[in-house]
C-alpha cells in the first residue's frame, strides 16, 4: 500500500473537516517512520495549499497543473489519490489560513524561517508563476501564508525576488545589502549554496521530484552572485 493510500484511508471521505483529519493522520499513521512522515507532510502542504491558492485565485490554468506535476511526478496509479487529496483540501470549510497554520505545526523545528516551510513556499511560487505572471490575489495569498509560517519579511522578499520576472534585484535574491562589502556577500552566497545542496534537501524530507525546483533556485542564486561580482569588479 502506498503512503497516499495509507493517508487517505486514515482521513476518510468527508471534505467538510478534512484539515483536522489530514494533520492527525500524518502525525499518527507515520509515527514510527520519521523519514516518510517528513516527505508526506511536505507533499501534503504543497498539494493542500496549492488547492487553496487555486480557490483564492478562482482559476486553475493548464500551465499551473503542469507546474504542479513538475514538483510531483507521481506514478499513474496514484493520480486518483493525489486528486482526491487536492479536492478534499479545495472543498474543506477551513480557510487557507488554518491550513497554513496547522501544516506549519508539522515542521520539526517550528522556528522562524524554517527551511522546510521555505521549500513549501518556493513550490507555491513556482506554481503561481506558471502562467507567466503572479497575480495580485496569488501574491497576497503567498504573503499571508508566509506570515503563518513565521517567515520574516526579509526572507519572504528574498524568495519572491527569485521568482519575479524582469528586473530581478540580485541583492534581494541573496538577501544582502548594497552596503555590504564583497567578502560578506561571498560568505552569504556560499552559505546559501550549502543550505540548498541536494543532500540537505533530502534530509529535510523534500521529495526527489522537488529537486527540479531546487535547481531553479540554485540557478537564480548563481546568476545573482555572478551579477554582483561583475558589478563590483567594474567599480
Task: Walk me through what this model shows.
- The chain is mainly α and 235 residues long.
- Helix content is 70%, strand content 0%.
- It is built from 13 helices and no strands.
- Helix 1 (3-11) crosses helix 2 (18-29) and helix 3 runs parallel beside helix 7.
- The mean pLDDT is 84.
Structural class comes to mainly alpha
Tally the helices: what do you get? 13
Instruction: Spell the H/E element sequence.
Output: HHHHHHHHHHHHH
Based on CA atoms alone, the radius of gyration comes out at 18 Å
What form results from the Cα inertia axes?
globular
- Point out poorly predicted stretches: none
Distance between the termini: 61 Å
Tally of strands? 0
Main beta sheet, described?
Answer: none
Q: Report strand %.
A: under 5%
Helix content: 55-70%
Mean pLDDT: 84
Task: Offer a quick outline of the entry.
With 235 residues, this protein is mainly α. It is built from 13 helices and no strands. The radius of gyration is 18 Å and the shape is globular.
What is the topological layout?
Elements: H1 3-11, H2 18-29, H3 34-57, H4 62-71, H5 79-91, H6 96-104, H7 115-128, H8 136-148, H9 153-163, H10 170-174, H11 182-195, H12 198-203, H13 211-234
Pick out its properties:
about 240 residues; about 0% strand
Amino acid at each position: 500500500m502506498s503512503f497516499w493510500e495509507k493517508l487517505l484511508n486514515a482521513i476518510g471521505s468527508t471534505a467538510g473537516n478534512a484539515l483536522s483529519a489530514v494533520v492527525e493522520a500524518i502525525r499518527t499513521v507515520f509515527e514510527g517512520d520519521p523519514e516518510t512522515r517528513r516527505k508526506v507532510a511536505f507533499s501534503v502542504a504543497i498539494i493542500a495549499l496549492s488547492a487553496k491558492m487555486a480557490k483564492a485565485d478562482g482559476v486553475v490554468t493548464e500551465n499551473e497543473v503542469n507546474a504542479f506535476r513538475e514538483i510531483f511526478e507521481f506514478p499513474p496509479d496514484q493520480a486518483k489519490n493525489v486528486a482526491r487529496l487536492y479536492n478534499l483540501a479545495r472543498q474543506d470549510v477551513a480557510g487557507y489560513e488554518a491550513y497554513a497554520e496547522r501544516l506549519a505545526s508539522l515542521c520539526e523545528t517550528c522556528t522562524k524561517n524554517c527551511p522546510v516551510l521555505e521549500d513549501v513556499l518556493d513550490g507555491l511560487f513556482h506554481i503561481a508563476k506558471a502562467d507567466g505572471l503572479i497575480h495580485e490575489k496569488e501574491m497576497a495569498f503567498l504573503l499571508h501564508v508566509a506570515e503563518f509560517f513565521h517567515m520574516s519579511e526579509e526572507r519572504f522578499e528574498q524568495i519572491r525576488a527569485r521568482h519575479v520576472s524582469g528586473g530581478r534585484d540580485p541583492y534581494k535574491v541573496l538577501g544582502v545589502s548594497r552596503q555590504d562589502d564583497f567578502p560578506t556577500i561571498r560568505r552569504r552566497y556560499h552559505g546559501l549554496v550549502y543550505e540548498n545542496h541536494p543532500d540537505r534537501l533530502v534530509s529535510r524530507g523534500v521529495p526527489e521530484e522537488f529537486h527540479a525546483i531546487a535547481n531553479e533556485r540554485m540557478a537564480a542564486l548563481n546568476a545573482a552572485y555572478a551579477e554582483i561580482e561583475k558589478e563590483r569588479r567594474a567599480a
